Amino acid sequence: MPDQSIPQARTPETPTAEPVSGASGISRRALLGTAGATGLVLGTAGGAVGYASAPAGATPLTSVGAGRAMFHGKHQPGITDGLQARGHLVAFDLAAGAGRKEAAALLRRWSTTAERLMAGEAAPHGDTDVARDAGPSSLTLTFGFGHSFFGRTGLEKQRPAALDPLPDFSSDHLDKSRSDGDLWVQIGADDALVAFHALRAIQKEAGSAARVRWQMNGFNRSPGATARPMTARNLMGQLDGTRNPKPTDTDFDRRIFVPDPGEPAWMAGGSYAVVRRIRMLLDDWEKLSLTAQEQVIGRRKADGAPLSGGDETTPMDLEKTDAQGGYVVPLNAHARITRPEKNGGAAMLRRPFSYHDGIDADGTPDAGLLFICWQADPLRGFVPVQRKLDRGDALSRYIRHEASGLFAVPGGAAKGEYVGQRLLEG
């Protein structure tokens, strides 16, 4: 779990998604998005016209329900969006006999479904009404292709070199049945029912073309749960890093997205997602004293500040020593090892979910992190950092990597297109 911060969760006071449009043809879910006492009434010239145009008397949504992410764009949604309260990750394998034609039809169906659901509308076929009373709730759906997809569809020549399988790591205890897959879908929303509704719709639209290989459920802190926006905490109680690349960084796009023209061309504007199910050995971790936990991470637990002093955003002083001459930030501290300047500038955008899948028979919690990181090239992003962690990270004795996947996530679909169209029809 490299020491890079995850996108901050939204709060009702700081929505990042666009409000539901009040244009003609308002959906049965979107019509609920009228202006209420949530600070979303926009009366200034040039402001969004969203909620005020809904029918009089409609019950206003809170800002959590009213947030809307855009399906169409240069990049797919769910990459740079703020953290979402609920997530589902699901991988599919194409059915026997299904090839490029069936895959194209499936991606077309999935894209249509995603566009409708993200707008707060009903699913195109057999809607279950699970999300009838909710707004879009910042729903995002993101689609990617695994290494095996290209062989199944006869597109081996279009497979990116960056999609080569990840190397083995000593901390891996991987369950192959919960790893990889031909197709990958990431679903996120700020309402659990909206997220489940999308998961069910995607599964149903797969039809006979693909079957579920594995599926995982995750969560983050709900928007508005803290007095101010802040870096999220993981299940170890730690602020989960502070060094995520920011879209305002001059080199952000170069590090996170494949340039245009891309290599291959169909990946222009896309990114690569590394997905890891990392189990936290919480019983062992919670036996450590607060001081010991902070030594493992290299940061204060209370506020995420480096042990060398300052606050969460203060640069870490790796050379600072204590009265005995020892490094204040231990040599094997997680935060020291993962710093980009110690890894050839390797950077990735982390956007994970926590998970809890129950209690084992011996009372051990099956809980941890659904680690998701985005980068323009995993061989220059995830791999060098993980290799270094493998060689002496103090945190490694308290975690276990149990599933893994690498997926090529193409750029966003233009209006009238579906995700992956440049690959499947190129």
TrEMBL record:
One of its GO terms (molecular function) is metal ion binding. Keywords: Heme, Iron, Lyase, Metal-binding, Oxidoreductase, Peroxidase, Signal. Residues 1-24, 299-319 are annotated as: Disordered. Binds 1 heme b (iron(II)-protoporphyrin IX) group non-covalently per subunit. It catalyses: heme b + 2 H(+) = protoporphyrin IX + Fe(2+). Its cofactor is heme b. Residues 231-413 form the Dyp-type peroxidase C-terminal domain. Its main location: other. Residues 76-220 form the Dyp-type peroxidase N-terminal domain. It comes from the Bacteria. One of its GO terms (biological process) is iron import into cell. Residues 1-14 have a biased composition (Polar residues). PANTHER family: DEFERROCHELATASE, DEFERROCHELATASE/PEROXIDASE. Involved in the recovery of exogenous heme iron. Extracts iron from heme while preserving the protoporphyrin ring intact. Belongs to the DyP-type peroxidase family. This is Deferrochelatase. The lineage of its organism: Bacteria, Bacillati, Actinomycetota, Actinomycetes, Kitasatosporales.
